[in-house]
TrEMBL record:
It is an enzyme of class 4 (lyase). PANTHER family: ENDOLYTIC MUREIN TRANSGLYCOSYLASE. Its EC number is 4.2.2.29. It is a single-pass membrane protein. It comes from the Bacteria. The gene is mltG. It is found in: Cell membrane. GO terms for molecular function: lytic endotransglycosylase activity. This is Endolytic murein transglycosylase. It catalyses: a peptidoglycan chain = a peptidoglycan chain with N-acetyl-1,6-anhydromuramyl-[peptide] at the reducing end + a peptidoglycan chain with N-acetylglucosamine at the non-reducing end. Keywords: Cell membrane, Cell wall biogenesis/degradation, Lyase, Membrane, Transmembrane, Transmembrane helix. Functions as a peptidoglycan terminase that cleaves nascent peptidoglycan strands endolytically to terminate their elongation.
Amino acid sequence: MVKIGTKDIYKNKKSLALYLLIILFIIWLIFNGLFGANNINNKDIKLISIKSGSSTISIAKTLEKEGIITNALAFRAYLTFNGIESSLKAGDYKLSPSMTMKEISKALINGQTYTISFTIPEGYTLNEICNVLVEKDLVDKEEFWQVVENEPFTEFAFLQNAPQGQKRLEGFLFPDTYEVGKSMSAKQIITVMLKRFENVYNSLPEMQSGLSPWDLIILASVVEKEAILDEERPIIASVFINRLNTNMKLQSCATLQYLFPERKDKIYIEDEKIDSPYNTYKNYGLPKGPICSPGEASLIAASKPEVTNYFYFVAKKDGSGGHLFSTTHDEHVKNKRKLGY
């Protein structure tokens, strides 16, 4: 009979514990090598675009190619083991090689996408909006104008009467601050802006100006360019409504300014003779189309103008942004003299 002493049992237990510790350490190394960070010291941020419909295989290969993960196969194994291989979302992500697979997959599942913010001020024209988007590196200039001219956007009823050509969406890309994904196309960004316009338009008060929906947008754009103070917008709208109702020319400097590449400091008599459907000094009625993107206050003013007897207004020179309004031409002339014109 072989006898085993307590020392031998203790020795064997110590050896077994050591072996288990070594095995666990090896497993830990493998786990962290495959599933841990690619480079814990590399905190450089990379913008990774995951397109809609991308497979798990293509996503994993993209991450490996960009150096975000060490091994695409290991990443897929991690996703499969955790039952999340079908939960990844498309979008633009800021990822780093210092992130673990757990952190990366969490970002892709939660849709923690990287967005770019841009602001379109009230009164901007299509040209100015295009320049903002190009400067933000969100669109290609040529692509922007191709979408403006050629995309039907049939889902938006308010575009039914819009003229064809480059001015087709003038007035309808709503001025606001937006956050969009870096990989969004020009069409997608423009659609977001059109939907914003639609939401504001549908919330306008009941029409009291007697204008068609198309003419309402045109008038709102003129008011946007003429007014500075919100409280004056309904009054300025009333001046133009009064002129329309009595068959007077609008004689809006803003519609003339729209014809020039850059704003002029002063409108001259020869400018008033320019042959253009946007020249309201030469033509009766509203201009051919909107001359800028009106904000909500101008849209409301055009929909619900003040009831006044005013036919004229002139800007004050005190820096307030206000105007003097008058009913007759004689009063208008007196106001201009009073202000030093």
